[in-house]
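Why does residue order matter? Because the sequence determines the fold. Keep that principle in mind as you read this record.
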Amino acid sequence: MKDNKARIDLAEYKLRSAWYSIKKMYHEEAKKYGVTHAIGFALLSIHPKNGTPSTSIGPIMGMEANSLSRILKMMEEKKLILKKTNPNDGRGVLIFLTKDGLSKRELTKKKIIKFNKLVNTNITKKNMDIFFKTAETIKKLASEKNILNNEK
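Structure:
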C-alpha cells in the first residue's frame, strides 16, 4: 500500500493522469463531429487565413514528423486541409484550412475556451500561475539531454 501511495505522488503520474482525463474528454467530444482530439489540436495549430508551413505544425504541437504526417493525411482525407506549394520556398508546403476545416477549428476553439473558463472558475489565479511555472520547469527538465544518465 505504501508503494502505491508513493507512485501516486510522483509528478509524472499526476501529469499523465490529468492529461489522460483531458484528452479523453476532448476525444469523446471530437468524435461527435467526426474528428479526433489530435485533429482538433492540429486545426488550432494552423493559421486560419495565412496557412502554416507543414514543418512548423509539429513543433507547435510538440509532435514528431511521423505522427504529424498521419494526422495531416487523415485531415486531408476528411477534406479539412489543403496543401499548397510555399511561394517563398518551392520545396516547402503550406497547409491551409478548408471551409469545413475552418468550421471545425472554430468549434474546437469554443470547446477549449469553455473548458478553460471552467478551470479558471475552479482554480485561483495564484494557483494557475504556480501551475504554469511548475509545468514549464518540468518541461525544461524533461527536455534536457541525458538528464536520467547523470549520476548524483
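The mean pLDDT is 90.
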